[in-house]
Specification:
- The structure holds 2 protein chains of 2 kinds.
- Chain A has helices at 2-14, 27-35, 45-54, 147-155, 171-176, 204-219, 250-259, 296-308, 352-367; strands at residues 62-63, 69-73, 80-85, 91-96, 102-105, 123-128, 131-137, 163-165, 184-186, 192-194, 198-201, 229-234, 263-272, 286-289, 313-316, 332-341, 348-351.
- By secondary structure, chain A is an alpha+beta fold.
- Chain A has 2 domains: 18-88 and 203-367, Aminopeptidase; 91-186, Peptidase M42, domain 2 (Elongation Factor Tu (Ef-tu), domain 3, Beta Barrel), CATH 2.40.30.
- In chain A, strands 1-2-12-3-13-16-14-15 form an 8-stranded mixed beta sheet, sandwiched between helices.
- In chain A, α1 packs across α3 (45-54), α2 (27-35) crosses α6 (204-219) and α8 (296-308) packs across α9.
- The longest helix of chain A is centred in the middle third of the chain and has 16 residues, at 204-219.
- The model of chain A is unreliable at 1-24 (pLDDT under 50).
- By secondary structure, chain B is of the alpha/beta class.
- Chain B is built from 8 helices and 20 strands.
- In chain B, the strands form 5 sheets. Chain B has a 6-stranded mixed beta sheet with strand order 1-2-12-3-13-17, sandwiched between helices. Chain B has a 6-stranded antiparallel beta sheet with strand order 5-4-9-6-7-8. A 3-stranded antiparallel beta sheet of chain B has the order 10-11-20.
- In chain B, α2 (25-32) crosses α5 (198-213) and α5 (198-213) packs across α8 (348-364).
- Mean pLDDT of chain B is 92; it is low at 1-21.
- The chains are: A alpha+beta, B alpha/beta.
- The interface between A and B is large, with 52 and 59 residues.
Chain lengths: 372, 366
């Protein structure tokens, strides 16, 4: 734990100069701020610290264990829970070879089968107690590839043959850079601005969603007291609880137990732009319900979207691990999701129009008192 | 010379060397790697090079964008040549949906640019795009017998953020525009980095630095030509054009030594460590340097206390096209891990040793 606290300080120092004034409510600026901060399951403390630093000083930040933080606003009795993730999918240091290369593991299962393959030949950042360490994931030189090696090392690339080169020549040198087991390994936060007011980057969807909650919290900071609306930035949303049957995210199960919400809005990301049947980027946030049909929450969000002048897309889908624990009548849960093209790749694409709409709809929803 | 003895001598030389103190090659490299110059479209990078040559030199430039200058007169005529082109792609067509397709090729493992940003160099500036991940990338792999189709440049579907061909063209994108990976520099430590286009911008930087440090009196009755040629990656075309008029006795091609100093490579050959000095690329896919010439270079390096290694690896070099004209090709290099990738790795000490070696050869070659 000491290690993690130190790591937070190291990153905080590394990010000095990038911190905007607390309370800045512009969701695009906030997204850029959060985008720069690595966060993987079990290593959310740096991003949590960043969120905390961006919240208005008059807001009391509550800690809920595992790294989860929350703030409270006035609202209808319930309470109402608005929950977004702090953790993204990523990798961590699994070992250090005698030659100074790092081997990789994941804290949670990958979101899809090709997730690890994107690492081949890429720059990465190892977040250590001493600050960020730059490295690259080794690949074979193309001049030296035989057909067999192309099959096994390129087409068949997996974590079994993934090595991070940090320029060290021995385990001792690697450790001297500050690298320790479990240190998170993520892609560098390189933002690409595309035409049509769209941004692309690793873990951009997660950071954009977290930023939208920061923006809403900052805007509604004067509505503290009453303690009936809880805005949560949750750690460990990608880790499923153990046991038989449906496996909810650990974070969701804990949030349910702690706050006993009457209504829950999971603010999440959703794959978009994949053709018919999928949400489309630029079409507005997606309201995902377990069951089709009217509900108080759906009606409240439709009203909020109309007031915000924003589009809303609708989808009926099975419960996600994050919404699963809250689906117990009479409690209500919906997911309000940001459409993300190329979700869970190193270049997640977000339409800024959707991001702004997500933020505005949430604000309208909360200003109106939610679904009373 | 046996390998252990070489290693011992080299270690001593490395520690004793003070060469490179005046070199600006590293700073030049960090700048020049970012200048676009896909094969056949080297204009920006060749102008970069020409613009930084010493004012007194009369540099020439041909229609292909080869750039060169010659100093001195007499024999032997020694040519140093590095290639200024880099790997990349060319826009083939724009789809009705505003996506960009590229011509086959590229020279980089396509998998390493999947779901990655690229820059399209248009007549109106750079336009960013993302190479779409393969369709169904996030779906459960098929359990059937049909193997997954390989991800190739022909499969690239570059997303620009627009939805129609007209919108893409309005950005300035057109057939024939070049595309490079969006470059980032990974700094492992001061003086140790990885990025795209180290091959062969490091060679370009070494030659440029040597040109800036060249003292006319060291030429001493010989002819020295420095050339930055084009289209090496697509078939040594720039060098072939130069070979029509330049007839050197010796050609020192300055290009990457494909080192196996990385965890996925066999150490059967090419295992010259990064950080241990310049390289004589003695045997590659295009040239076998006579042993006598290798020993001459080693002797010069020893005399000048320049750390040096030699070995064999794969790949061709521009010097090879001068062989039929009577030249002896002695490729000089640095140990480069991860050749032809987004993460080509290079050590400042190796680059500066290479620059020092070029100057030493000019001064001492007989």
């Amino acid at each position: 734990m000491v290690h993690r606290i130190i790591r937070t300080l190291g990153w905080t120092a590394a990010l000095t100069g990038m911190v905007a004034a607390a309370g800045a409510a512009d969701v695009k600026s906030l997204t850029k701020e959060l985008f720069a901060v690595p966060s993987t399951t079990g290593n959310e403390e740096i991003l949590a610290a960043k969120v905390r630093g961006l919240l208005p000083k008059n807001m009391a930040v509550e800690e809920a264990g595992l790294g989860t933080i929350a703030v409270r606003l006035a609202g209808p009795p319930g309470p109402t829970l608005i929950l977004a993730a702090l953790d993204g999918y990523g990798h961590m240091v699994g070992g250090i070879t005698p030659e100074g290369y790092l081997t990789l593991d994941r804290p949670v299962p990958p979101p899809h089968a090709r997730f690890d393959a994107f690492l081949l030949g890429q720059p990465v950042i190892v977040s250590t107690a001493k600050g960020p360490v730059q490295g690259v994931v080794s690949q074979p030189a193309i001049h030296l590839l035989t057909a067999e090696r192309r099959r096994t090392q390129v087409e068949g690339f997996s974590l079994e043959i993934a090595y991070v080169d940090i320029g060290a020549r021995s385990e001792k040198e690697a450790r001297a850079k500050g690298v320790e087991l479990l240190d998170p390994i993520t892609y560098p936060a390189v933002l690409t601005e595309l035409a049509g007011e769209q941004w692309a980057g690793p873990d951009l969807g997660l950071k954009a969603v977290a930023a939208s909650l920061v923006s809403v919290a900052a805007t509604l900071a004067d509505r503290t007291g009453g303690d009936e609306t809880v805005l949560v930035w949750s750690a460990q949303t990608k880790f499923a609880a153990r046991g038989r049957g449906a496996r909810p995210a650990v974070a969701a199960a804990r949030a349910k137990a702690k706050w006993q919400p009457k209504r829950t809005i999971v603010v999440d990301v959703i794959a978009a732009g994949k053709g018919d049947g999928f949400p489309f980027p630029g079409g507005g946030p997606v309201l995902v319900q377990f069951k089709e049909g009217p509900s108080d929450l759906r009606k409240a969000f439709e009203t909020a979207a109309a007031e915000a002048g924003a589009s809303l897309q609708f989808l009926t889908a099975p419960d996600s691990p994050l919404s699963l624990p809250f689906e117990v009548p009479p409690a209500e849960v919906v997911t309000l999701a940001l459409p993300v093209r190329f979700l869970n790749t190193p270049s997640e694409v977000v339409a800024l129009k959707d991001l702004q709409a997500l933020r505005d709809i949430l604000e309208r929803f909360l200003r109106a008192g939610g679904a009373r | 010379m046996t390998r252990p003895l070489v290693t011992g001598v080299l270690a001593l030389l490395l520690s004793a060397s003070s060469a490179g103190a005046q070199s600006k090659a590293w700073d030049i490299l960090r700048e020049i790697v970012l200048v676009p110059g896909v094969s056949g479209h080297e204009g920006p990078v060749s102008y970069f090079i020409q613009g930084r040559l010493p004012a007194g030199l009369k540099a020439e430039r041909d229609a292909m964008n080869n750039v060169w200058f010659t100093v001195g007169s007499g024999r032997p005529h020694i040519l140093f040549v590095a290639h200024s082109d880099e790997l990349g792609w060319v826009v083939d067509k724009i789809t009705p949906g505003g996506r960009v397709r590229v011509k086959p090729g590229g020279g980089i493992l396509p998998q390493t640019v999947e779901a990655r940003p690229v820059l399209i160099h248009t007549g109106r500036g750079e336009v960013a795009g993302i190479v779409s991940p393969r369709p169904g990338y996030d779906e459960r792999p098929s359990q059937g017998e049909t193997p997954e189709a390989p991800f190739t440049a022909e499969a690239f579907d570059i997303y620009l953020g627009v939805a129609t061909e007209a919108e893409a063209r309005a950005l300035g994108v057109a057939e024939g525009d070049t595309i490079t990976a969006k470059k980032t520099i990974t700094d492992f430590a001061p003086g140790l980095m990885a990025t795209r286009a180290v091959d062969d911008r490091a060679g370009c930087a070494a030659l440029l630095d040597a040109a800036l440090r060249l003292k006319p009196e060291t030429v001493k009755g010989r002819t020295i030509t420095f050339a930055w040629d084009v289209q090496e990656e697509t078939g040594l075309f720039g060098a072939s054009e130069l070979a029509k008029t330049l007839k050197p006795d010796y050609v020192f091609a300055v290009d990457t030594f494909v080192s196996t100093d990385s965890p996925l490579e066999s150490k059967r050959f090419g295992d010259l460590p990064v950080g241990k000095g310049a390289v004589i690329r003695a045997v590659d896919s295009s040239n076998v340097t006579p042993r006598t010439e290798i020993l001459k270079v080693l002797a010069i390096a020893k005399k000048r206390m320049i750390p040096i290694q030699f070995g064999n690896s794969r790949g061709g070099n521009d010097g090879s096209v001068f062989l039929p004209g009577g030249a002896i090709d002695i490729p000089l290099s640095w140990p480069g891990s991860y050749a032809h990738s987004l993460i080509e790795k290079i050590d400042r000490r190796d680059l500066e040793a290479l620059t020092d070696l070029i100057l030493a050869v000019i001064s001492d070659w007989k």
